[in-house]
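Running log. JK asked me to keep both predictions on one page so they can be read side by side. First protein, sequence followed by its tokens:
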Amino acid sequence: MEYVIQFILFFIIIFLYYYFIATKRFKAKYSDKEKVNLPEVKLLVRMANLDMKKVNYKKLLKQITFMFSIVLPITVLTTFFVKSIFLKILVGFVLLIGLTYFGFYIIRVYYKKRGMVKDV
């Protein structure tokens, strides 16, 4: 029960951070869909070959924020169970990269099904 409360607390803190602080400087550029300034958005656009003229930038930022709000608490709480500091770093790094890639994959499939990718 303690870990569930910690997960929810981490989730809320990270979600609020990303939603209000990390994306705050990009809110003025929502209407300009050609400007993709967040590194996470740039990576996702390259991975999924997204057509930013069709994608709602606000919705994309919310999806990325939600994805990172789930990935980071899972990574932090999983490393609590590991005793060695070296293994904590290793497990945390592997989980962070793996879960981030999996989250981007889910977002990519979502946009591909809706036909918002460029034809190559």
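And the second, directly underneath as requested:
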Amino acid sequence: MCEQLIVEGRERLSQPRSFVQFTRVPEADKMLNNLEEYPHAFVIACVMDRQMAAEKAWCIPYHLKEIIGCFHFSALSTLSESDLKRIMSGPPALHRFPEMMARNLRSAIRRIEVHYGGNAATIWAGKPSSATIVRRFLEFDGVGQKIATMAANTLVRDFRIPVSDRYSIDISVDVQVRRVFARMGFVSENAPAELIIYRARELHPEYPGIFDLTLWELGRTVCLPTRPHCEKCRWSELCAYAEEVGAGT
């Protein structure tokens, strides 16, 4: 099972860069995929991605663009925290916690301005190590280990950003990844996030996050919390859970 998952992860990496659907809003996804013109949109979406549905959080840069009239970094940098609180609070509110996220947004804009010369793409420019990218995302207020590694993984796996290594791109433990990883038999059902991270490192030290997308997709489509569709899963013959319930026979 482990080797097959790694093979699938490598096959994904060998494919040409493709359009990533972060949201269900085509124009929002178009902006988020445009790292050349709007690299700060990707970074800001990462900062916003907490305590609400990811698809809605990743729409926030696009909603900001609609409200402000553009999304050039020079325009964002002129907005005060009060401006951002007013915009984030709506109506409609752009986030469940508009005041806190307005502070984090203003802090992110300031960090990009001061540390990266107003160009967020500098965060991943120059073929840095994976640890450098993760560390740089962790320096943004409100970004934790899961989002920082998810950001690095998305840049490397989906946008094909060159890096010198992938050692520090850990598995991002969300409810989908946790459930599928446990059902496949790699960890116990109630394993904490730290154990899952170290188990992935043990299984594939050179790129622990290689498992992420496959597990997440399975969790969203067939390996559901209740009544999983084991009979439709291409991994059922190798899966510990499917074998236990008799779906892999």
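Observation for JK regarding the second prediction: The mean pLDDT is 96.
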